[in-house]
Design a protein that fits this description.
mainly alpha, elongated, 73% helix, 129 residues, 5 helices, single chain
Length: 129
């Protein structure tokens, strides 16, 4: 079994181009920005959690929401680590996807949650639970 991955049946080795490296660096900067955003909002998330629990919200449900809100830096860090490893194992497209997509997924879910509570719950963090 060959240790190096190949592009196709002809046996050509995959090349890591300058454009692939530049794309990975830009995706890494975006993931780092998501991690910083998640870390910066952690204090606000903790205060919203404690206020919701004190107002009588279900503690277990609010704990799940809090863990989701605090997951941003961990998701971005894991995506960065896995993406760089996959990139240097000669799979540049998959590496860029692993760096960018987990952070994008977390931000998309967070935006959807914020949209839902602002639309259906009149901005109330607990949504009457």
């Amino acid at each position: 079994m060959n240790a190096d991955p190949v592009d196709d049946i002809s046996g050509r080795r995959r090349r890591i181009t300058f454009l692939a490296v530049l794309t990975l660096l830009l995706a890494s900067v975006a993931a780092a920005a998501v991690a910083l955003f998640g870390a910066a909002t952690s204090a606000a998330s903790m205060m919203a959690y404690s206020g919701a629990v004190e107002s009588g919200a279900d503690r277990d449900l609010m704990r799940v929401v809090l863990y989701f809100l605090l997951a941003g830096p961990f998701v971005a860090g894991a995506g960065l680590l896995i993406g760089w490893i996959v990139f240097w194992t000669r799979r540049p497209g998959a590496g860029v996807a692993w760096v960018f997509l987990p952070s994008l997924l977390w931000v998309g879910l967070l935006t959807g949650y914020m949209w839902a509570i602002s639309t259906f719950c009149a901005g109330e963090f607990t949504c009457g639970v």
